[in-house]
Design brief:
Blueprint lengths: L7 E7 L6 H9 L4 E7 L5 H5 L5 E5 L5 H12 L7 E6 L9 H9 L5 E5 L10 H18 L11 E4 L15 H11 L4 E5 L6 H5 L2 H15 L1
Parallel strand pairs: 1-2, 1-4, 2-3, 5-7
Antiparallel strand pairs: 4-6, 5-6
Length: about 220
């Protein structure tokens, strides 16, 4: 089956991403994908920057967390009955537009209803040792708790078919939504697969300490959800 971008919708949760959102949305606007951006209570001008783009815009007055923002965006997107594939992406530019076709293809071809992006299926993604250790620990923990043989459980690049999108109801507000989605797929016995994706980690992110804090967030996800 041929991919029709107009039947796909990218849902993005954005919080204080003024440094990244313009470049990212320019790239997305060069495609024909529908785009929904949820500004999750940003205080750095992100909201004003989003207004300059031809995307659907939703604003949370307060910061509710990434999980809550994605749920808001998915609820909005699934009202459009023409949308057949729903994609979640991070707003910080780490996910690559070039990976979307391979992510979506198994759903368009009717093979599965959920596709998880994985940075461990090829060698394009360059990881620090601590990040790699934490991510691999998350994979082991997730397999023990859900039984799903995933190689990457904390990757925000995912795709869902319309057949199952109403099953994806995220109730955890923050970072723990990643584990929740895996749990839903296992609980509902949804058909899934993984697709190789590249994650870029810009140098300025390391300066801001994001690498360390993301690792802390993942550990919190594992032990305190």
């Amino acid at each position: 089956m041929v991919l029709n971008p107009k039947e796909c919708c990218v849902v993005i949760a954005a919080y204080n991403e003024s440094e990244n959102i313009v470049k990212f949305l320019k790239e997305l606007n060069s495609t024909d994908f529908n785009v929904v951006v949820v500004d999750d209570g940003s205080t750095d001008g992100t909201s004003d920057l989003i207004e300059k783009f031809d995307v659907y815009k939703i604003k949370h007055d307060l910061n509710c967390g990434q999980g809550a923002a994605l749920q808001t965006g998915l609820e909005f997107a699934r009202k459009n009955k023409d949308i057949k594939v729903f994609i979640t992406m991070d707003a910080d530019g780490q996910h690559q537009i070039k990976d979307l076709e391979n992510l979506i293809k198994p759903i368009i071809n009717g093979e599965v209803d959920v596709v998880f992006g994985s940075r461990f299926l090829d060698k394009r993604t360059k990881l620090s040792l601590i990040r790699k250790i934490v991510l691999k620990a998350a994979v082991v923990f997730s397999k023990l708790s859900t039984g799903l043989p995933l190689t990457d459980t904390h990757n925000g690049l995912r795709a869902f078919s319309r057949n199952v999108i109403f099953e994806i109801n995220i109730k955890r507000d923050g970072m723990t939504h990643a584990s929740e989605i895996v749990e839903i797929v296992a609980e509902k016995n949804l058909k899934f697969k993984e697709a190789a994706v590249e994650i870029l980690y810009p140098k300025f992110k390391f300066k801001k300490g994001q690498s360390l804090w993301n690792s802390v967030n993942i550990l919190s996800d594992l032990f305190f959800k």
